[in-house]
Amino acid sequence: MSLTQLPVLQQFVLLLAALALFLSFVLLAQARLVAAIHAFAWQGVLVSAVTLVVALAGTAHHLYFSAALTLALKGLLIPWMLHRLVRRLSLSRHTETLRWPALVIMAAVLLVIFSYWLVEPMVAQDLAFTRNIVAVSLAVVLIGLLMMVFRQQAVAQVLGFMSMENGLFLAAVSATAGMPLVVELGVAFDVLVAMVLFGVFFFQIRESIDSLDVDRLNRLTEAVEITGERPG
Amino acid sequence: MIYSWLIALFQALLYVALAPLLIGWVRKVRARLQNRRGAPLLQPYADLRKLLIKEIRVPHTASPLFRLAPYIVFVATWLAAATVPLVALDLPIAQIADIIVLVGLLGLARFFLALAGMDVGTAFGGMGASREMLISALAEPAMLMAVFTLAMTAHSTSLVSVMSHHLADGFLLRPSYLFAFGALVLVALAECSRIPVDNPTTHLELTMVHEAMLLEYSGRHLALMEWASQIKLLLYGVLIANVFFPWGIGQDFGLLALGIGLVVVLLKLAVLGLALATAETTLAKMRLFRVPAFLNLALLLALLGLLSHVILEVGA
Is residue A38 part of a domain? Predict the structure, then answer.
């Protein structure tokens, strides 16, 4: 089943999924925090739109609710919370210097190829028209992971984590026409709680090392050795 | 057979004739957007005529290559343009030249342009040439990658089969075409030295890229160089318009089909010119050191187009 045989609505799902993948790359390479938060919000909106169109094109009616939940949570609430955090931490104009941006992007491209290779046996079975998206959603998850590895800024790492969740949700929608509502509500609540906890942690980290650059956490032990103090 | 070659010749002449009109249109729209009245639409023709009848002055340090380069640049760009279908689709020239030849001809023109820039030995010419080479070395892979995305869909590198494949498929929402479109637009902006990469109206030599290489030219030579860069802009415009929105192009060589094709392509180019002028009014020129990041984005878009073609469109 290739693209030419699909109805327009199902082609639209593939287009939206491809755009969500592109936004993962934007998140990965965006040095400005506020712009990265906006990219994350757009990714949330796209994932919610994918869910909505899958619901329109198929028969899974509970997906309407998931789409609304995703839009409210990942398109609006979490970006708004991150925005407020960034403003209160006075990081609105913060730009991170990325190390080897082109190489990181190429690594992300390799991850896309890897995830395609990984899910190919699954794609070979004709499940549903959404099965092509499984590779894309796996790639979104892996790129989120890559972002957490390569970014030094704590807020950017949280963005990577949240976009991983976007990828997982996309995988759930595309592989199995959505999770049961109870599971979905549970995950949504978990993400929200994680967001609140991250907010508290940001303030804690900044109070103890006066920055949100996570690499500086490594130097804590050295400082102890220099002053000669031993804990306990 | 002879008739179709005549159409091909007519189309190539049309490129030369229409190129100044497009640039005039872009300048006019830009002027209106900036609340100026602007020069008349046909001003580029008058400029070319003025330059063509003016006397040629050649610097005494110049080698024969300096005199030769404008002709090579003009002819190579013109030949490249002749391979892109403008008003009619099924041209005999498609059997000779595909997209790779198009990229190669543009590369040839650029090579001689950069050589001519360095030939006289002034600082600005050399600087412009080195910048042009920096930009093109990054733009060319992105362009080829975008072209391969199109070629993979049509299973051919010939522009005519890419377009007719697209026409036969009808309206499809292809993610790969969307990405390739983005990549080609970015590459076109860089290659035609338009605003985020290079400012074509600047008078400050230190920020010039394309203009810096033409500083020593005058008269007929300058006219040919300017004309070639106008043809290049038209070429990219037609490439983007006719590959991604091929509807309306003449499928046979009847007069009616050719007439409709001409009107439709003029409309498409008018819309593209409007978009270009709007973008140039709202965007600012980038620093030169940001240009690699800009072209990396183009390469990334083209790569994603290729990948999304394989992942999303082919299927099992």
Answer: yes
CA distance A15 to chain B (A): 5
Residues of A in contact with B303 (CB under 8 A): 109
Q: What is the CA radius of gyration of chain B?
A: 19
Comparing A5 with A126, the larger pLDDT belongs to: A5
**In sequence order, what are the residues at sequence separation of 6 or more whose Cβ sits closer than 8 angstroms to the Cβ of residue B142?**
B183, B186, B187, B295, B298, B299, B301, B302
Number of domains in chain B: 1
For residue B23, how far is the Cα from the chain centroid? Answer: 12
pTM (2 d.p.): 0.91
Indicate yes or no: CB of B300 within 8 angstroms of CB of A25.
yes
Q: Residue A232 falls within a domain, yes or no?
A: no
Residue of A1, A2, A3, A117 to mutate, testing the B interface (most B Cβ within 10 Å of its Cβ):
A3
Burial-class residue B201 by CB neighbours within 10 Å (0-12, 13-18, 19+).
exposed
Tell whether the model's pLDDT for residue B169 goes beyond 70: yes
- Answer whether residue B92 shows pLDDT above 90: no
Which residue range forms the structural domain that includes residue A54?
3-227
Range of the domain at B79: 2-314
Query: Which residues of chain A have a CB within 8 Å of the CB of B171?
Result: 8
CB contact under 8 A, B178 and A3: no
Cβ distance B304 to A135 less than 8 Å, yes or no, reads no
* Helices vs. strands in chain B: H and E counts, helices first: 11, 0
Is A213 domain-assigned?
yes
* Closest in B178, B311, B314 to A15, CB measured: B178
Residues in chain A, how many?
232
The DSSP bridge partners found for residue A95 are A32
Q: How many Cβ atoms from other residues are within 10 Å of residue A223's Cβ? A: 10
Contact B274, B118 (CB under 8 A): no
* pLDDT mean over B182-193: 95
Sign of CA dihedral B115, B120, B126, B128: negative
A190 lies in a domain?
yes
Contact B172 A126 (CB under 8 A): no
Residues of A in contact with B294 (CB under 8 A): none
pLDDT tens-digit profile of B137-167?
999 999 999 999 999 988 999 999 999 998 9
User: How big is the CA angle at B250 (ends B242 and B246), to the nearest 5 degrees?
Assistant: 25
SS3 B208: coil
CB B54 within 8 A of CB B301: no
* Best residue in B155, B297, B312 for a mutation probing chain A (most A CBs within 10 Å): B312
A8, A14, A126: best to mutate for the B interface, most B CBs within 10 A:
A14
